Amino acid sequence: MSLTAQLLTALVALLHLGFLVLEMFFWTKPLGRKIFGLDPQVARDSAKLAMNQGLYNGFLVAGLAWGLWLGDKGICLFFLGCVVVAGLFGAATVKRSILYVQAVPAILAAIAVHYF
Question: Name one Pfam family in it (predicted).
């Protein structure tokens, strides 16, 4: 795998590590509420759901790190594909900006992994 592919895949993993931290630990805090545009009551009411979502982001991070550690294109492509699907679904059902924050970086990383 090329250095570009590795760096882009690592970037996607780092983004999802950040999402994990925001969703699991900062959802109800001012930073999390500001980033996700939540009022305090909505944040409190949805905190357990956000923690669960953060955990799933952790699984994506683990899978991408595993693929990078082994230098395995197939593992990286599988987990990047999961990120793309989640990003497309999130953009369609929650907020369009998820497309650019989540799906586009994963698409670029997958292209780099596959072709370089």
Answer: DUF1304
